[in-house]
Fold each of these.
Amino acid sequence: MRWIWIDKFLEFKSGESAVSLKNVTLAEEHLHDHFPGFPIMPECLMIEAMAQTAGILVGEARKFQEKVILAKVKKAVFYHYVCPGDTITLHAQIESIAPEAASTNGEIMRGDQRIAQISLMFSHIDNNLAGKQFPEENFVFTDMFNSLLTGFVEQDTPPEQST
Amino acid sequence: MAKTRDEIFEQVKDVLVDALGLDDDEVTAEATLMGDLGAESIDFLDIIFRLQKAFDIEVPREELFPAEAVMSNTDFVSGGKLTEKGLAEIRSKMPHTDLSEFEQDPDVNKIADLFTVDAIVNFVENKVNV
């Protein structure tokens, strides 16, 4: 199982930018402990949600041929808490992309209010970890991630229907 | 218009301060990127992206940091030291770096010390003032 921290994409401009959306709900059990009586979405999970938004953007730019992993949090500044019932949108832009890596800038918004600014670096690990071998299959971009892009980009193999 | 070396140094300093989360006074001309400033491999790419943006130049990774490729070539490294061939390769690929001290004892562990702030300034100076 993987935790997916975005619910859907709202916009997807291949190789340029993407906007995703997450609804925060008290049904997420970790909010019961973070913190008791004062549930807020952990900032580290907002970074992860941005990493998923921007990571899919970076991966799609190379047609998912690269295994893209988060390599560096260049900047993460938080301005407001995010509470159950909030809908946040994650806006990610590719700043630079090269064969070995990519850098992205992003903002998290709640309506017109800026919640966070998050800039990240991603590594294309097959091209960037001197000689280390990784499995052939792309373990980063699983079907669950691909299904988020349905309707936004052309896909060779549509996600399998569960019966 | 050509930039002076001081102007380039100041801009390179800003790039390194932002990329590596440093204080201004930590970035001196002699500082080594890995030893003194704590850069890791992904930081090199971050620095390259930022240099490209700051100076509007193309910075191929193998041009600015060619020693990575040299170290993984068995023709160029023997017994933990660079061979004559390896040294020749480094000399031709790193014209922006002062190699005089390294050549006395070309230990591969010391290659990291070749990546100095000064070497980046030299590299950028050659690129922007052609």
Amino acid sequence: MVTELAAEADRRRARALIEAQGLSFEPGFDELVGVFEGGRLVGAGARQGSVLKMLAVDPAWQGGGVLGELVTGISALAFAAGHEALFVFTRPEHARSFEELNFELLASAGPAALLEYGGGLGRWLERHRALVREGDNGAAVVNCNPFTNGHRHLLEQAARRCETLYVLVVREDRSAFPFEARLRLVREGTRDLANVRVLDTGRYAISAVTFPSYFLKQGDDAAGVQMELDLELFGRRIAPFFHARRRFFGSEPLCAATRAYNQAMRRVLPRHGVEPVEIPRVEAGGGPISASRVRDALRRGDLAALEGLVPGCTLAYLLSDEGRAVRERLRESEGRHA
Amino acid sequence: MTIVRKAQAGTMQSSDLMVFLEPAPELVIEIESTVKAQFEHLIRAKIEEVLRERGVGAGRVRVTDRGALDYAIQARLETALLRAGGE
């Protein structure tokens, strides 16, 4: 029987079990559950949204049904919470145990493997099959928070170099501009580019926000592992489906995290036959155009500074009531990526 | 009967299966199994038989199986249908 562990004493037991398996106890989950045998906690695990984490089974009970019981219990909770696909990030040596529970290995990189239950990636790819054209294609994965003249330049240059350019807009909604608005502006801002197809990444761009690090050892570079896993997934499963032989991205003069991601692209993508292509950023008003510069201007309430930074569709959005609400939220917040 | 709401039945244990149902305009059956290569056709035939007996002509049926035998497939699917159903 899987039970939710709500009492402080049970949570302490779960923590001890998780830590005894060499995992870190990472607070921040929707439910923590456990399996008891003869009054003893023999298995524990947690769910955060559609991500399973910190699954641990007492060594004396491994190889039996405890893992299946845990995952059954957690997946029932996830299903009730409205999730139909489940993800687990774990060490590659544990991938097989999850494959036996019908999880599918999506990618692995160094000390990490990502598996999915529910066949979501296959369905996501199928949904886009009508957009697939065989040919010398390319792809770009963008957040566009919001869409700027810099993005426009990148996509225009990229579109010239391929037969079909697939632009994947990161779905995850942790940005100042909501996903629906980001996607719409990319569509409007590239409408005149006949060979561009704009779609969303679904759950298949692995961001630092959802990436758990409980299974990593001290000294592992969590950010680096997360980037490699994201790029392995792109290179192994997404790029081949769209016949994308090149991935385009802008040079990054300012943000260290984005620069590290660009480095990771150069390292990982060629392994999968995808050529990384860096396009130099365009400048305006004495500096490179970036979405964070646009957000800074909005934070200051300085609409005049947007001249040359954003195209007409973004400007129109910013002046709309919907855009005004985002501007007001921005003025109350801080930080580069917010 | 008709699938009018999402429902689930079963477990991830060996020799069992999980069944997920949800309303859909057409009948779609998706099967994932650790013995898919050998037995997918038999699993599908059993599911179709139960759906036919219950008069279910539409809905999305997702199954993840770990080598369940026929009677387990039937029991899990019928339970899920009762949870999902209206007459």
